[in-house]
Write a structure and sequence with these properties.
The complex is a heterodimer of chains A (280) and B (319). By secondary structure, chain A is mainly alpha-helical. The radius of gyration of chain A is 24 Å and the shape is globular. Helix content of chain A is 77%, strand content 0%. Chain A has 14 helices and no strands. Classes of the chains: A mainly alpha (280), B mainly alpha (319). At the A-B interface, helix 2, helix 4, helix 5, helix 6 and helix 7 of A face helix 1, helix 2, helix 3, helix 5 and helix 6 of B.
């Protein structure tokens, strides 16, 4: 096998053996596990016809669910941009007791099952909870309201921003900052005009990933959201509700809308990033 | 932006100014003031304390609220044990499958040039942008009562949805990029020079893989396996759609937590949840250890290994 691969036109791909075997296996695996199932979704949605699709997709209950899902995901991602950059900065630039522990803890939302996060956050922010009780005395309803959904998505989205910004911040060339300082820039000017622009692409990526994850998030949100149709019903929950009523068409339509939004978000980010990369 | 060898651990040293340190005002502009530093560290600590640490604390405190007896009963209950078995099974099936796939995919992408490589890389990231609920839905559309394969499954008397195979399939789907991404990052950073040298010396493909590549990528593999395992055991949304919640049969640990919680057995729900918390904490500890081992090996070998194992599920930016 080695000889054949070395001899022919295969060498243009790379000289190492095993191309056919590994590519074949990978394509078979992806085809069976991903492409076939996804095509079932697309075929189901296409089979409905445009008017029917539009009618289900723009149903008031569906519109309310998108608004809630997209709005809370956006708000949580914005808050996470601010705190995520702060945390990444502190982790990269300062040494202090507990820094390693803090660094390890950042990945907790990736490692913790979402259902556990969901019931834990509900226990904290419910009207009888550690934070929910003082909040409810102030007249603020945290759990079982859009605020609760926002809090859950903040938890879920945080590592995306920290872990995309952190390596870029670590890799920044210190001499650029030194130059700015020597030229008389204040610390704040150096940060906002030298450091921050270098972080923009990574912040944008982190934001997009956190947003896309937030739209689809189910486990951590479903316990804290209250699940009232038109008020606190997120889009993934609407899919589940429709499935439980054996309304496969309805579930497919909502799923297609959600999928399109997250694909477009990620695609737009990739494009912007490529442009930013070219300019530099 | 590349080529800076120092990493976490030497952070504070790197940013100590050298040439300008004798001039006070310039020094002030290059380092953050002591007050600013304290405020920023304090702010980050407070935020993380409330957002990340508090949920962990509340799980254990709620789990033990009614004493150790209730806690112990909840985690040794027959339904809890059967859900534990199913969760272990889901991980035992999906992790090895995705390990083989991940290594093969990383090999094919990092060692060869071929048309459609970009598309393949994008496809591997796909599950990250698909909601777990949607993943469950697409498999219902395939294998459900009205699905594409319903007649075939009926003829063979097989059941996939609302049964164990469905849970295994969606878990494998949800977790398949995790090993591939980590191994790919490591393989791409290390290049193929040593493999090609072995080839000219007459080594066969499998020998090259087993004796050259595998030792080089082992930390990346281990790292991917840990992440994959944590996600496989903790998956909730997709499994919830295809499980049917049949007690003692198709409930995984996270689904068991949901049921207990829904029935207002809060202490029991948190007790079972605390097991999953321990899994998460163990995952984070092993991850730190792997990173430390990988860094130690790099220091010993002076190789061009990657910065550190890809820390997130998904990193779009090349630093």
């Amino acid at each position: 096998m080695t000889k054949r691969l070395l001899a022919g036109s295969w060498s243009k791909r790379g000289v190492l053996p095993g191309f056919g075997l590994s590519l074949g296996f990978v394509l078979l695996y992806l085809g069976l596990l991903v492409l076939l199932p996804l095509s079932a979704l697309v075929a189901k949605a296409a089979g409905l016809g445009l008017t029917e699709f539009w009618r289900i997709a723009t149903d008031p209950r569906a519109l309310a669910a998108y608004r809630l899902s997209f709005g809370t995901s956006m708000a949580a991602a914005v808050v996470n941009v601010f705190f995520g950059v702060l945390v990444a900065w502190v982790l990269v630039r300062y040494s202090f007791p507990g820094r390693k522990l803090m660094d390890a803890l950042i990945d907790l939302p990736f490692a913790l099952p979402t259902a556990v996060a969901g019931i834990a956050l509900t226990a904290i922010y419910a009207p009888t909870g550690w934070i929910g009780e003082p909040l409810s005395k102030l007249g603020i309803k945290a759990a079982f309201s859009p605020l609760g959904i926002f809090l859950a998505l903040t938890f879920i989205g945080l590592p995306f921003i920290v872990r995309t910004v952190q390596p870029v911040l670590e890799g920044l060339d210190p001499s650029v900052e030194e130059a700015a300082a020597v030229l008389g820039a204040t610390r704040i000017a150096t940060f906002s005009r030298v450091i921050l622009p270098a972080l923009y692409p990574s912040i944008l990526t982190g934001f997009g990933l956190a947003f896309a994850r937030g739209i689809g998030e189910y486990g951590s949100v479903v316990f804290i959201s209250g699940n009232m149709p038109l008020k606190t019903e997120i889009a993934p929950l609407l899919i589940i509700t429709k499935l439980e009523q054996y309304d496969y068409e309805g579930a497919t339509v909502i799923a297609s809308v959600m999928l399109s939004v997250s694909f477009v978000t990620l695609f737009a980010i990739n494009l912007t990033q490529r442009r930013m990369g070219k300019r530099r | 932006m590349t080529g800076s060898p120092s990493r976490a651990g030497q952070v504070s040293k790197r940013y100590t100014p050298l040439a300008v340190s004798s001039h006070r005002h310039e020094r002030a502009a290059l380092e953050d003031g002591a007050l600013a530093r304290r405020l920023l560290i304090g702010g980050a600590t407070a935020f993380l304390g409330v957002v990340l640490l508090l949920p962990l604390v509340v799980v254990f405190s709620s789990a033990l609220k009614q004493g150790f007896g209730v806690y112990f009963d909840a985690i040794t209950d027959a339904e809890a044990l059967s859900s534990m078995r199913l969760t272990l099974l889901a991980a035992a099936v999906s992790v090895p499958l995705n390990l083989v796939f991940g290594v093969a995919a990383a090999w094919v992408i990092s060692k060869y040039e071929f048309p459609g490589k970009g598309l393949l890389t994008t496809l591997i990231d796909l599950p990250f942008s698909v909601s777990p609920v949607v993943v469950g839905l697409i498999f219902v559309l395939l294998f459900g009562a009205k699905g594409w394969f319903a007649p075939l499954l009926q003829a063979l008397d097989l059941k996939i949805i609302f049964s164990v195979p469905g849970i295994l399939i969606v878990t494998t789907f949800i977790t398949f990029p995790l090993v591939a991404r980590e191994v790919l990052a490591v393989m791409q950073a290390q290049g193929s020079d040593e493999e090609e040298a072995a080839l000219t010396l007459g080594a066969s493909g499998w020998t090259i893989f087993l004796r050259i590549t595998l030792p080089k990528i082992k930390w990346g593999v281990l790292y991917g396996v840990i992440l994959c395992n944590a996600r496989a055991m903790g998956e909730f949304g997709a499994v919830s759609v295809v499980s049917g919640h049949i007690r003692g049969e198709t409930n995984t640990l996270p689904l068991h937590v949901e049921i207990l919680y829904g029935e207002y057995h809060f202490a029991a729900a948190f007790a079972v949840a605390s097991l999953l918390c321990l899994l998460a904490v163990a995952t984070l500890i092993i991850k730190q250890w792997v990173e430390w081992q990988a860094a130690r090996h790099r220091a010993g070998e002076r190789s061009t290994a990657p910065i550190r194992p890809n820390p997130t599920l998904h990193e779009g930016v090349a630093p």
